Amino acid sequence: MATRAEPANDIAIVAFGETAVGLRTGRSSYDLAAEVVEEILTATGLDLGDIDGLSVGETMSETSNPFWAIYMCEQLGLSPTWLQLNGLGGASTIGGVTRAAAAIRDGQCNTVLVLASDAQSSSPPTEYGAHRPEFQYPTGLKGPVGSFGLLTRRYMHQYGNPDQALAKLAVTQRRHALLNPNGCEKLRKPITEQDYLDSKMVSEPLRMLDSVMVCDGANGLLVTSTDNARKLDLDVIAYPTGYGELTNVNGRQQLPDITETGFTVAGPRALRQAGLTPDDIRMLHLYDDFLIALLLTIEQVGFCPTGDGVKFVLDTDFGYDGELPLNTSGGQISAGQPGLAGGGLNAVEAVRQLAGQAGERQDTNTNEPSATRSNGAPDPKDESTTSNAATAGTAPNSPVSTVPEPGADTASSPTTWSRSVHWPREEPPGKTTLEETHRTRTRSPQPTIFQ
């Protein structure tokens, strides 16, 4: 991928929307998506006709539907001139933002809704197929829990027991989830590190509190050009300025290290494109279907050397009010995983923080220049790995501005998707913002988020 000399500032994220995450809601993915669209239209004052592009992620609940994206247009009343169906699992939202930017620059459309919606807990189980029935099922390896158990065991063998660090991460994210009104109600209970250590083993050494709870939910981002944002009188929240992606890391190796992910390539690439280093990052929003994924992402993006993740976690305050806030919505682990819309959950929270609309869990360290969000973890469900990462914030003086993930091979043929995005935030000159007209809030100077 080519690297730009300076981060671009011609594409903007101007709105976000999210449903509450719920367990067995009985709602459809279409119904959940409609709620997100309504929230975005209400926030921006736009009409459906102003949205002429749609990027929608694949789902667990609609996997058998080959016309999923087209039906979504029909259900929402959209008539896009550009339509993208992203089969990148939890990485689809970040990938969708980048693909939307390309479509806007190419003149295919002007304003794109990047949408993720899934009702997995209200739908029948999905069969992945491929090599799983022949090579995995006979061994008893049938789902993500088994694969992540193997991954965690391998990490322990190579670098030592991570239990204390994972316990700290579990407690930190649950604390954040308790401040998130959109979090799954069943998970709204405080936990201690001892609660984590005492939770039952589900695939030794993996515990129940290492894992996500599959739920229903939807989320979305509205992407347009900076010029169009001005024309539509929209407040600009963030600017995508760096991106990295890698699929099928070590795919030609016969016996790859299952703890090595595409974040080793995509994370540094995105940071370079944004002109940042890990030290510049102010906040982390990392994909967290299993806690070990957080540890791998932190190491392989470059926040600490490989194998030193435990020490880094124990030495760092990840609270929303700490030195390096992590998954301030509670992440998927503690807010719930809305199926394949789970990656969008963390992306929307990153943008929400940049907008200063996170309520009680708003980042309070307003003097720091940057923030970070990461996404991804090996997916035991199809024994492959997907990784993604992104950065967001405001570049100084700018007028505008891996960890494996579920759904990848971790056994004999790992697959890794990695991506990163840098999102700075700054209002165009002379712009009247939504905050000025509808609410009063404190702005963080030049925040940067890595996702």
Written description of the protein model:
This protein has 451 residues and is α/β, with parallel strands linked by helices. It has 14 helices and eleven strands. It has helices spanning 29-44, 68-76, 92-105, 132-136, 144-159, 163-177, 193-198, 226-231, 263-274, 291-301, 309-315, 331-335, 342-355, 434-438; strands at residues 11-18, 53-57, 82-86, 111-119, 201-203, 206-207, 216-225, 283-284, 371-379, 384-393, 448-450. The protein has a five-stranded mixed beta sheet, sandwiched between helices. Helix 6 crosses helix 10 and helix 6 (163-177) crosses helix 11. The longest helix has 16 residues, at 29-44. The two termini are 18 Å apart.
Topology:
Elements: E1 11-18, H1 29-44, E2 53-57, H2 68-76, E3 82-86, H3 92-105, E4 111-119, H4 132-136, H5 144-159, H6 163-177, H7 193-198, E5 201-203, E6 206-207, E7 216-225, H8 226-231, H9 263-274, E8 283-284, H10 291-301, H11 309-315, H12 331-335, H13 342-355, E9 371-379, E10 384-393, H14 434-438, E11 448-450
